[in-house]
Amino acid sequence: MKRGIIYFIEIIICLVLQSSLYPFISLANVMPNLLIILVVSTAYMRGKTTGMIIGFFSGLLLDILYGNLIGLYALFQMLIGYMAGFANAIYSEDDYTLPLVFVAIGDFIYQFLYYVFEFLLRGKLDFPYYFRTIIVPEIIYTVAAATIVYKLLHMVNHRLIRDENKEE
């Protein structure tokens, strides 16, 4: 129960920061995708099921706030959470570089799916332009932000595990 409340608070904090700080922290018209960092980091630390659940609810909130179609962002985030959850098998508490690679891959998949469903299906075929101006800068910015955010999420996860072990 406590873990669920913490996850809900993490989703809300990332969503509020991502949506309200956009004008202040955007560089080259892109900003870090904090929800992708949250979904990938949680899936990496806790596994596929938790990654899917966090991805679904964070994506659903994105759908409610920004989406034209309810469920599209939820599907994207859930898929990324599920795929990142496979990396839980190689999870190491001391490794801070591998999660950054997974965040970059997750952000690329998210942006690619976004391009396919928002632009490609509408006949806008200039993927190299979108890749150059949106995908690459956002991946770089998201990975840079993930260096800080992942450490915070790792500390929260470590504390939750310690508290759960203490209760038993």
Automatic annotation (TrEMBL):
Q: What Gene Ontology terms for biological process does this UniProt record contain?
A: regulation of cell shape
Keyword set, alphabetical order: Cell membrane, Cell shape, Membrane, Transmembrane, Transmembrane helix
Q: Where is the signal peptide?
A: none
Q: What is its main location?
A: membrane
Q: How does it sit in the membrane?
A: Multi-pass membrane protein
Q: Where found, per UniProt?
A: Cell membrane
Q: Does the keyword Transmembrane helix apply?
A: yes
Note the superkingdom of the native organism.
Bacteria
Which Pfam families does the record cross-reference, listed alphabetically?
A: MreD
What residue intervals traverse the membrane? Answer: 5-24, 30-47, 96-117, 129-150
One GO location term (cellular component): plasma membrane
The family note in this entry says: Belongs to the MreD family.
What's the protein name?
A: Putative membrane protein
Task: Report the source organism.
Answer: Herbinix luporum
